[in-house]
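Holo prediction — S-adenosyl-L-homocysteine.
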Amino acid sequence: MSLKDRIIRLIEADGPMPISMFMQMALHDPSEGYYATRSGLGQDFTTAPETSQVFGELLGAWVVHEWDVLGRPQPFHLVELGPGRGTLMVDALRAMSSSETGRACLGALQLILVEASPALRKVQAERLQHASPVFVDDLQDVPEGQMLLLANEFLDCLPARQFERDTDGTDWFEVRIGSENGELTYGRVRADLDWLLKQTVGALDHQPGLRTLCEILSHRKHPFRALFVDYGPMDQPPAGSLRAYKDGAQVDPLDQPGAQDLTVDVDFGALKTEAETAGLEILGPLPQGQFLLALGAEARMQSLVRANPNDARSIFEATKRLVDPSEMGNRFKAICLSSSGLPRTAGF
Ligand code: SAH
């Protein structure tokens, strides 16, 4: 039975399904989930590290700087959440090997990859073989010890629930997924949740995983910094942001569960609140363009151009895509969550 049919059967048995559960099944179902079974990255959608090597290289430089700030711990865990095709880490590690401090950092790090997808783990294991990565299922499973963590476009795949107010603004409803004549459809059910009643907006998307993430970080016993880059608004919660991508085009999220990527916007305001509640220190969110320029994107681009003069045009175009406010520069944000009491970090 196809994943779509199994979802429909579940809805018939149990009633309309929260969007979070639909996302979980469509992305991670062991036999048909999008991430679980395919490495469609770069085909259905493109991310910053897949756009330009400058991205991973700058994050590698950030790691070296922060490792120095932490007092050069040896060993320490370099963790990546959702490494995709491993491109960011390949570029980061290569960039690290070009300086003396970077090489010392490389010698001290133990690479831990948090990856849910067996298909992508395979790609990552091959491309990062030289760094002997250890794979874990969840951030929770990263052993104790000092840690630097990178995560690009990870938060946007954490399942979200969608809520909206009635047209007269009094009652809250949850948008759920039902079925009709063998197709999936959107519907609404009453939502009487205390925290919703305090909201001032008319609709919002809520990712419960943001709280879990902050709580797991706050329970770590040793100093750490965790850098997240993703898209989403800073000043108000996202609403109705569930989207699907296939072959580079936006498609109907309900159309082919498992065969297309699903994503939501990240609520950076909510992430900040959760991080504060968990007692973490917060830097940002800052627009990606500003962050990368502060880390030296321009100089990095120029040295790439000097080494590959024939590719000058494409190197420039790709770097521009990352930093230009009208492209990825503003829509993407960087936020750094740290254990308390660390000195200031680079880039913020
Ligand atoms: N960081 C990469 C890939 C982004 S796609 C890049 O920037 O190119 C999202 C990645 O997160 C995929 O590797 C996906 O399999 C992984 N992922 C999504 N949800 C996850 C979860 N709950 N636990 C672990 N990995 C997850």
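READOUT: The longest strand covers residues 172-180.
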